[in-house]
Amino acid sequence: MAAMLYALPIAAQSQINGVVTSNTGGALGGAHVVLNGYERAVYTSFNGEFEFGNLKPEKYALRVSYIGYQTYYDTLEAGRNGENLKIILEPSRFLTDEVVVSATRLSQKAPATFKNISKREIEERNLGQDLPMLLNYTPSLVATSDAGAGVGYTSMRIRGSDQTRINVTVNGIPINDPESQGVFWVNMPDISSSLSSIQIQRGLGTSTNGSGAFGASINMETNTLDQGAGGMISNSFGSFNTRKHTVQFNSGLLNNGFAVEGRLSEIASDGYIDRASSNLRSYYLSGGYYGEKTVVKAITFSGTERTYQSWYGTPQSRLNNDVDGMLTHAANEGYSEAQTQNLLNSGRTYNYYTYDNQVDDYEQTHYQLHLIQKFAPNLSLTLAGHYTKGQGFFEEYKPRAKFIDYGKPNAIIGGDTISRTDIIRRRWLDNDFYGGTFSLNYEKNNHNLTLGGGAHFYRGNHFGEIVWAEVSTTVDHLEEYYRNIGDKDEVNIYGKWDYSLEKWTFMADLQIRSVNYITNGIDNDQLNIDVSEQFLFVNPKVGARYKLNSRSSIYGYAGRGNREPVRNDFIDAPEGTKPRAETLNNFEAGYALIDDKLNLTFNGFYMDYENQLVLTGELNDVGSSVRRNVDKSYRAGVEIDGTYMFLKEFGVNANAAFSRNKIENFNEVIYDYDEINGGILNKNYNDVDISFSPTVVASGMLIIKPLKNLEINFMSKYVSKQYLDNTASDVRSIDAYWVNDLRIGYGIDDLVFDRIEFNLLINNIFDAKYSSNGYTYSYAFGGDLTTENFYYPQAGTNFLIGLNLVF
Fold first, then answer.
1. For residues 744 and 711, is the Cβ–Cβ distance under 8 A?
2. Which pTM value belongs to this model?
3. Which residue has the higher pLDDT, 124 or 194?
4. Which of 254, 293, 405, 766 has the most C-beta neighbours closer than 10 Å?
C-alpha cells in the first residue's frame, strides 16, 4: 500500500486558506467551511483559521456557514486568489432554525467526545437501508439487521451499549420509547432523507431530554432552511427485491418569510431471511416563518410499517448444517413435522415463522412545534411542544396453546376435556407521548449560559386479542385476553456554562431529572402487575479543553449519570424483588488535530457502572428472562478517528476502538430440569466480559476521485468476537467478522435537472458468512448441560443502485 501511495504522480499543488471572523472582528472558531470538489469539509480552528492544501490550480466554489450569520459564498482559484483570505460573516437578517438543536449539542470546541455527520455523508449511503446501517462506519458502532439486509428491524450498539442505553432525539425532542427505552427505526422509514445533520456523542455527553445516555446520544436535526427552492426525485433498487422511492420539495424562503418543505417515501424489501419482508411508508412536512428575531416552525413526520417477523434467530445447528443437532433442537422444542422440515430445508436464511400473517403492523406520527425568539443580540429563547401518536399490533400463530394461558376455561367436546388449541393472537400497543422543552441562552464576554429542560408524559395501553381459535370455547372473535396501562412522567431541568479564554474552554453542566412510572392491570402472562416507582437523579458533568496551538488541543471530561430500569425489569422481577436504578461515572480525555491534510482525534475513556442491569439466565415464575443488578462493572478503552487526504483525489478515513469491558462479579443461573420441581445451579464468575462488547471495532474507507464528479469508496469493517452472555464462554459467542463494501457515486451537472446523481453500493463484496447479533440459553437435563445458541445471519454479497434527479 505504501509503495502504491508514493508512486502516485504529484503535480504542482496550491492552497486555499484564510481566517473567518464576525463583523465585529471576533474570530469564529468552529465555522463550517466547504470547498466544492474537495473531499471533506473542515471547521475553523480556535482562531478562525482554515486551510485546504494539495489543490490543483483551478477554480473552486467556497461556502462558509456559522449559526446566526449569513452564509458566505465565493469562487476562487487556487494558486491565484485563494490564499490568506479574510472572510467576514455578517449577522443573518433573519433567524435560522439551526439553533433548535444547539442546547442539546456539543460545540466544536466542547471538551467531550463526539462525531458530526453531515447531510452529504448521510445522502451518500441512503439507498433504502435504515439509519443504523448508514452509521455503521462511525467510531465504536456495531449495526445489525434482523432481516439481514438492513431494511426492517435494525439496531445498533455503541461502545457495547444497546439501543435502550442510547439517548436519541430529533430536534431536541426525545424519540426513545419511554417504557422500553428502545428506539425502533422501522417506525421512522427514510428519516435519513429529511436530516440535515447528526451528532453522535459517545459516553454521557451533554444534558439532553429523554432517557439517560449510558453508551451514547444520537442527536438528529431535520432539514434546516434552504433559501433556494428545489426538490429531488430519488429511486433505488437492489438485491432481495429492495426498492426505495422518494419525492422531496422545498419552497425556499418566500418573500413573506415563509418556507415549506415536504417528502413522501416508500421502501420495500423481501429481506435476506426467508419471508422477512418489509413494506414501509412515510412522510415529512414542515412549514415555518423566519423573521428577523422570530422563527416559528411546525414539523410532522410519520411512518407506517408492516414487516414479517424475523425476530426468532437461526439455531447454530442450522448455520453449521448439523443435521443431528437440528433434529435434537426440533425434539427439544416439540416441533411438528412441518416445523422440522422447515428447519432442515431452509439453509442460512431459515425463519422459524411460517404463518402467512406473522407480521408487525404499526403506525407512528410525530408532531413538533418550535418557537425561537431573539430578545437581544446575546439573549434568545427556544420553546418546543411535541406529540407522538403510536398504534399497532403484532400477530402470531400459536400452535397447541393452553386455554389457561389466555384466561379461558378448557373446552368440553363430547365429554372430552380439551386444554390446548391452535390460536391466532394480536398483541396491541396504543400510546400517546407529549410534552415540551425550553432553553434560554445568554452569551457575553466569552460566557455562554444555557438554562433548559422539559416535561414529557407517556400514556401506554397494552392489550391482546384472540383473533381465531381452532377449538371453540368461550372465545369470541377479537376477544380481549389481557390489558394493562403504563404511564410515565418525566421532568428535567439543566444548566450549562461554557467559558472561553485565549487557550482554554471550560464546561460545566448540571441536570436534575425526576421520573414517575406506574403500570397496572393484567399482563399477557395473565398475572396482575402493579408498579409505582419514583426516581430523582442528579447528573453533573464538567470538562476543559486546552489549545496547544492553532490546530491542536487536548481535553478532559468527567460526568455522572443515572438511569431508571425499563418496563420489563419491573414487571418480570420475581415476587418480592425489584430492580435498582443504574449509575455511570464517565471519564474521557483526548487530543484533536485539524490541519489542511489531517483531521485526527484520539480519545481515552473509562465508564464505571454501579448496579448495571444484566441478564443472568434467571427466569421468573412464568418463564420470562430477568435482569439483575451487578454491583460493579466497567468499560475502558481508546478510540482513534482520522481522515488524511494525500491529494485532492485520494485519501483515507479510518477509526478504531480498543476496549476492555468487564463485570467484576457475576452469578449465572442455570435450571436443572432433572429435578422433579426444577432445580437451580449457580456458578460464580469474576472479571468476565460484558456481553455484546467486542474488544476491537474498526473501520476504514479508501477515498478515490479519479475523474471530476466520480467518487469511489472502498469500505471495511472489523468487529472482534462478542460473547452472547456474561460468562465469557467461547461456546456462547459470535465469531469475529470482517466485511467490505464498495460505493461508486457519479454526478452530472447543468443538464435538464440541476444535477443527476448515480449511486451504486455493493455490500459484503467478498461474500463473508457472518452474524452480527444473537442470543443463548442453557439448561441441565439428563445429567448434561445443554446450550442453545441462536444467531442473526447477515446477507452475503448484495447491491443497491440509485438515481437522484435534483432540481
1. yes
2. 0.90
3. 194
4. 405
The CATH number that applies at residue 57 is 2.60.40.1120
Is 60 exceeded by the pLDDT of residue 307? yes
pLDDT at 61 over 90: no
Q: Tell me, yes or no, whether 722 lies in a domain.
A: yes
Between 210-224, 505-519, 617-631, the lowest mean confidence (pLDDT) is in 617-631
User: Which set of grid coordinates corresponds to residue 199?
Assistant: 451528532
**The pLDDT of residue 93:** 64
3-state SS class at 730? helix
- Where does 297-349 have alpha helices with state H? 316-319, 323-333, 337-345
Q: What are the residues facing 283 on neighbouring strands?
A: 264, 302
* Cα dihedral across residues 464, 469, 475, 479: positive or negative: positive
673 CB neighbour count, 10 Å cutoff: 12
Domain span at 237: 230-313+352-806
Instruction: Give the separation between CA 161 and CA 179, rounded to whole angstroms.
Output: 18
Poorest-pLDDT segment among 187-196, 346-355, 402-411, 728-737:
402-411
With 50 as the cut, is the pLDDT of residue 759 above it? yes
Residues 6+ apart with CB under 8 A from 713: 124, 701, 702, 703, 704, 742, 743, 744, 745
pLDDT, tens digit (0-9, with 9 covering 90-100), for 329-384: 999 889 999 999 999 999 999 999 999 999 999 999 999 999 999 998 889 999 99
Give CA–CA dist 725/782, Å, rounded: 23
CATH (domain of 751)? 2.40.170.20
Report helix, strand or coil for 46: coil
- Between CA 349 and CA 277 the distance in angstroms is 13
Q: Exposed (0-12), middle (13-18) or buried (19+): which is 577, by Cβ within 10 Å?
A: exposed
Check whether 46 has a pLDDT greater than 80.
no
Residue 292's nearest CA partner among 382, 370, 384, 375 is: 375
The pLDDT > 70 percentage for the chain reads 95
Q: What is the DSSP string of 646-702?
A: EETTEEEEEEEEEEEEEEEEEEEEEEETTSTT-EEEEEEEEEEEPTT--SEEEEEEE
Domain membership of residue 180 (yes or no) is: no
Integer CA distances (angstroms), 401 to 416, 418, 425, in order: 17, 11, 11
Q: What is the full DSSP assignment across 122-143?
A: HHHH-SS--HHHHTTTSTTEEE
The answer to whether the CB of 55 falls within 8 A of the CB of 38 is: yes
Q: Is residue 327 part of a domain?
A: no
Report the domain count for the chain.
Answer: 2
Instruction: Say what the pLDDT of residue 142 is.
Output: 97
CB atoms within 10 A of CB 254: 12
145 inside domain:
no
How many CB atoms within 10 Å of residue 289? 16
As beta bridge partners, residue 791 has 314, 774
pLDDT value at position 725? 95
- Strands of 377-418, DSSP E: 379-402, 411-413, 416-418
- Residue for grid cell 481515552: 604
How many Å separate Cα 608 from the centre of its chain? 23
Kindly indicate the confidence band of residue 664, based on its pLDDT and cuts at 50, 70 and 90: very high
The radius of gyration computed from the CA coordinates of the chain, to the nearest angstrom, equals 27
Last residue of a domain, one of 71, 92, 113: 92
- Name the residue type at position 435: G
Amino acid letter, residue 268:
A
Pick from 686, 685, 691, 669: nearest CA to 780: 669
Sheet holding 114-118, edge to edge: 114-118, 195-202, 216-222, 166-170, 173-174
Chosen domain end from 42, 70, 92: 92
* 792 membership: H or E segment, kind and range: strand 784-793
The CA distances from residue 787 to 40, 312, 328, 332, 790, in Å, are: 49, 16, 12, 12, 10
